[in-house]
Design goal:
Elements lengths: L7 E4 L2 E8 L2 E7 L5 H19 L5 H4 L6 H6 L9 H11 L6 H19 L9 H10 L4 H20 L26 H9 L3 H13 L3 H6 L5 E2 L4 E4 L1 E4 L2 E4 L7 E4 L2 H14 L8 E2 L4 E2 L4 H15 L8 H12 L4 H8 L4 H8 L12 H7 L1
Antiparallel strand pairs: 1-2, 2-3, 4-5, 5-8, 6-7, 9-10
């Protein structure tokens, strides 16, 4: 009976009309029997509403003064209708100042001010639609991983708006993270390790050699202090990391760990002692000015990449020293659980996922085979 009228449906003894307002699908009931005349009335009422919406003249409460629907709750009173995405983002990032690390906060600000506010900032919270976000994503010339990170603040403000009942619908609930392809590790062979070290000298050589023999993250290497070295017990106490020149806790709880001090790492430390042992708490310094490294930018650009080029080795980032440690240890037959703990992974499956193809036979004589492999 109601098929001839778009957006008009008979519902028992009432008539329901549906329309989209400010990105929200609205369904309102009219207390009218679904007769032919009443259905025609409902269809014309819907057409008038569509016209008013297009003309920016629609007032929800005038058409549905007694409605108790979710849409009426918000649009009938224009509840928080003036809150823009820019306002919500700025308020959200302010609340995150004491909840996240300084480096994470810096990234959030970069995302908000360089990506989200320029594109969506002027919109009211209720105006954003899923289609708008999908169209925006399709135009971004960025990696899937970066796009996923950019979506974090946007998803956060809409989750908060829903929880606080500021908006009736969440346009981000259907936006899924894009698939991210994990980069395959590109570890160095023992021959390549020797060629690289032959192209380095002094403190930088000690730094790289120590990195290869410990598998520490770059941030952990930069934050390492002499007090963290226990020669007697033969271990390194990894307690902290340094990001953007600021110390912070390790990446995960399991990142706070003891790493076995193998011979290659011990030799690098003994060689490094004459440079910084009685000068500073931090072990590794930039030889150009004798101060602790703030980050790995100079290591990469000034020392590492030129050394690879001189050694005739394909360009790879410094983080491959960590992959080298893990892959050589596993291919030498070291126990997976032991390697996982040395790496500071939260669980062995994390290690297995990244380095499965290098696993050989398992052995409990931890560290001995790796020493032979690298030597």
């Amino acid at each position: 009976m109601d098929r001839g009228y778009r957006g008009v449906t008979a519902r028992g003894s009432t008539i329901q009309i549906s329309f989209t307002f400010k990105g929200v699908q609205c369904r309102e009931s009219l207390k009218l029997k679904p007769t032919k005349a009443n259905l025609l009335y409902a269809a014309r009422k819907r057409e008038a509403i569509i016209f008013e919406i297009a003309s920016n003249k629609f007032k929800f409460s005038e058409h549905f003064p007694n409605s108790r629907s979710k849409a009426a709750k918000y649009f009938g009173t224009e509840h928080n209708s003036q809150t823009t995405i820019e306002m919500a983002l700025k308020a959200w990032v302010k609340t995150m100042q004491k909840k996240v690390q300084k480096s994470t906060l810096k990234d959030y600000n970069s995302i908000i001010y360089h990506h989200l506010i320029p594109y969506f900032g002027h919109c009211k919270l209720y105006e954003l639609t899923t289609q708008m976000v999908e169209d925006w994503i399709s135009d971004l010339q960025l990696s899937n991983k970066r796009i996923n990170n950019i979506l974090v603040p946007l998803k956060a403000i809409y989750k908060k708006a829903i929880n606080q009942k500021v908006i009736p619908e969440n346009p981000m609930k259907h936006i899924r993270n894009l698939p991210v392809q994990t980069r395959e590790p590109q570890p160095f062979t023992p021959n390549e390790i020797n060629r690289i070290l032959n192209e380095l000298e002094g403190q930088v050589k000690n730094y790289i050699q120590f990195a290869i023999w410990t598998g520490l993250r770059t941030s952990e290497l930069l934050a390492l202090k002499w007090e963290d070295i226990d020669y007697e017990q033969g271990v390194i106490h990894v307690k902290r990391a340094k990001v953007l020149g600021q110390e912070k806790s390790t990446k995960t709880k399991t990142g706070n760990r003891k790493v076995k001090l193998l011979s290659g790492a011990c030799d690098a430390l003994l060689n490094q002692e004459r440079f910084t042992r009685n000068i500073c708490d931090y072990i590794f310094h930039d030889p150009r000015h004798g101060r602790p490294w703030k980050n790995d930018e100079a290591i990469r650009k000034v020392f590492w990449y030129p050394a690879l080029e001189r050694a005739g080795i394909e360009k790879r980032n410094v983080y491959q020293t960590r992959h080298t440690y893990a892959s050589l240890a596993l291919s030498a037959g070291e126990n997976l659980m032991w390697v996982s703990k040395q790496m500071g992974h939260d669980k062995p499956s994390t290690t297995l996922k990244s380095y499965a193809r290098w696993i050989s036979s398992m052995d409990s004589n931890a560290g001995s085979k790796l020493t032979k492999k690298i030597s």
